[in-house]
Design brief:
By secondary structure, the chain is mainly α. Helix content is 53%, strand content 0%. The chain has a domain of 46 residues. It comes from Magnetospirillum molischianum DSM 120.
């Protein structure tokens, strides 16, 4: 087995990662608006539909509006325990 590349590479991603919440919403929207509504004859057709959706989505993008003041967010971050294992 030495010298062989593993077929599967596992990456640990904490489920509490805040970016997961945002990307889950995006995946839900793209699934509802583009993937479920489409009929794709090949993987290439599906990939192209996804690329078109992302291009259209980026054209009409809007800035994220924070719902809490920066100071409140920073204070909460300071209270978190720092642990990198």
């Amino acid at each position: 087995m030495a010298g062989r590349s593993p077929r599967w590479v596992f990456h640990f991603t904490p489920t509490s990662a805040s970016w997961l919440n945002a990307v889950e919403g995006f995946f839900s929207i793209i699934t509802r608006r583009r993937i479920r509504r489409g009929v794709f004859k090949s993987v290439a057709d599906l990939q192209e539909a996804i690329r078109r959706y992302i291009k259209e989505h980026n054209r009409s993008s809007k800035p994220f509006v924070w719902t809490k003041p920066a100071q409140t967010i920073l204070e909460k971050l300071r209270r978190l325990p720092v642990s990198f294992e």
